[in-house]
Write a structure and sequence with these properties.
Blueprint lengths: L8 E7 L3 H13 L7 E5 L37 H7 L3 H7 L6 H13 L4 E3 L5 E5 L2 E6 L2 E11 L3 E3 L13 E3 L3 H8 L7 E4 L3 H12 L5 E4 L12 H4 L4 H9 L2 H10 L9 H18 L4 E4 L3 E7 L5 E6 L4 E6 L1 E4 L3 E3 L6 H6 L26 E3 L4 H4 L9 H13 L17
Helix pairs in contact: 1-13, 6-10
The chain binds flavin-adenine dinucleotide (FAD).
Pfam family, one: Lys_Orn_oxgnase
Keywords: FAD, Flavoprotein, Monooxygenase, NADP, Oxidoreductase
EC number: 1.14.13.59
Length: 428
């Protein structure tokens, strides 16, 4: 029975309005139009955004524009990227620009365009408590119940992590890559000062290039892997990012599945080849001006500890496969990866939710979380089960496929058919 309160009641509430939950909202809207069922999303950002602090000029997507919020499942959906291009008048200009990969700023605009056409997307609401009681879930912000629902979908994404070796440095000398744009005006008085970027992933690459473009001439880029590894974008590597492969993963034992997913990492968790080429060429161009490379690449450097020298510079102590090295920099940019954001379940719900040995939510193949109470009311979690569902769960490649699987499970019928039969790879 649903309690009588003033708090609005929805069939499903999604926490977070990033691409994952927007895809769900888009398919919910078209699949259930006229049914009276409603979905609401709550996001702490003041408006539509997608890693907006990392939108440096010129940054590109890592995935094809066809991998939008809806097209892999429903290409006739009004919120397809193609419809965005046509209805906003940019189809011809964008096509003729011949991008290999879409500018990330364009994707952010597309998300904002789509969000504006979806009902019940609430911005500026940080959900800090989720409870469960008679009639379903209640989400709260600042002590106020914002909504109640039968089902819940967690889509709260990830946040940057700073490893212990880099923690505790003075804030004016060391900061995360997300803060680089806002810090530039206060750090660019001396463009020849030694700068360091720690983290060999895409965010580290983009921070390094941003420093170069801002005029810095002495940048060291440190990565832990043996070389600055680019994504394997070959056809069979891309076959990992399709429903046929997801199905194969679900046939494996949990232990094998985990090992397979870890070994598939180079297909996704690496640098975009075009971006790496761009950095290499920009460094070469700058070398022609300066007679030396402004960017030094330092692979196989594990920063194991840090300190501050007498001049206030940051000291980076690195372990290579053979020896210890030490470097100093006036400022360091930390780009050492991201981790899942904690779900703000209240104590009662937290106790009822099953977790894995890593402390992560236990998530089934339909993206539902195992919990005591799950029979009537379901909790789904998106982007939190990479080691169980594969690399597609941690990126945008199969957003609509994942949203379709969630809706099919939520309504107990095939609302969307997930089709992927023409696959030349036999995954076993
Ligand atoms: C810079 C960058 C570029 C990337 N580029 C690509 C790419 O090109 N292709 C690809 O496949 N993958 C890419 N990824 C990886 C992945 O696609 C993204 O992380 C993607 O944003 C995941 O979508 P999401 O909706 O799960 O999470 P997010 O986009 O992180 O969205 C989560 C949302 O939840 C909100 N939120 C969090 N906590 C709360 C709360 N308590 N209450 C209310 N709201 C909350 C946040 O404000 C945020 O808007 C990229 C990642 C990064 C960091």
């Amino acid at each position: 029975m649903i309690e009588e309160t003033d708090t609005p009641y929805y069939h499903v509430v999604g926490v977070g309005a990033g691409p994952a939950n927007l895809s769900l909202a888009a398919l919910f809207q078209s699949g259930l139009s006229g049914s009276g069922e409603q979905l609401a999303l709550f996001d702490k950002q003041p408006g539509p955004s997608w890693h907006n602090q990392l939108l440096h000029p010129g940054v590109r997507m890592q995935t094809s524009w066809l991998k939008d919020l809806v097209s892999m499942v429903d290409p006739t959906h009004p919120l397809s990227f193609a419809n965005y291009l046509v209805t906003t008048g940019r189809m011809y200009a964008l096509m003729n620009a011949q991008f290999d990969f879409m500018p990330r700023k364009e994707y952010v605009r597309y998300l904002a365009w789509a969000a504006a056409q979806l009902p019940n997307i609430n911005y500026g609401v940080a959900v800090d408590k989720i409870s469960f009681g008679e009639g379903g879930f209640t989400v709260y912000s600042d002590g106020v119940a914002k909504a109640r629902s039968e089902h819940l979908v967690i889509g709260i994404g990830s946040a940057p992590v700073v490893p212990p070796a880099l923690a505790g440095l003075p804030d004016d000398r060391a900061f995360i890559a997300d803060e680089l744009t806002q810090r530039l005006p206060s750090i660019n008085a001396d463009l020849d000062a030694p700068m360091a970027v720690v983290g060999g992933g895409q965010t580290g690459l983009e921070a390094t290039l941003t420093l170069l473009n801002a005029g810095f001439t002495n940048i060291k880029w440190f990565g832990r892997r043996l070389w600055f590894e680019t994504i394997d974008d070959s056809p069979t590597a891309n076959d990992v990012y399709r429903p046929a492969h997801l199905r194969a993963l679900q046939r494996m034992s949990p232990v094998t599945r985990r090992q397979v997913i870890e070994r598939l990492n180079p297909t996704g968790d690496a640098l975009t080849p075009g971006a790496m080429r761009g950095l290499y060429q920009a460094n070469y161009d700058a070398m022609l001006e300066l007679d030396r490379f402004p960017i030094g690449l330092y692979p196989a450097r594990d920063v194991v500890s840090t300190g501050i020298d007498d001049d206030g510079n940051v000291v980076l102590r690195c372990q290579t496969p053979e020896k210890r090295e030490e470097y100093t920099a006036k400022h360091i940019v930390i780009a050492t990866g991201r981790a899942n954001v904690d779900v703000p379940f209240d104590d009662d719900l937290r106790e009822r939710v099953e977790t894995t040995e890593d402390g992560e939510l236990a998530i089934d193949s339909d993206y539902s979380v195992r919990w005591k109470g799950m029979n009537g009311n379901k909790i789904f979690a998106l982007n939190r089960a990479r080691l169980n569902h594969g690399l597609t769960d941690a990126n945008l490649t199969l957003l609509p496929v994942r949203a379709a699987a969630v809706l099919n499970s939520m309504f107990g019928r095939e609302m969307y058919h997930i089709q992927d039969d023409l696959c030349p790879v036999n995954w076993g």
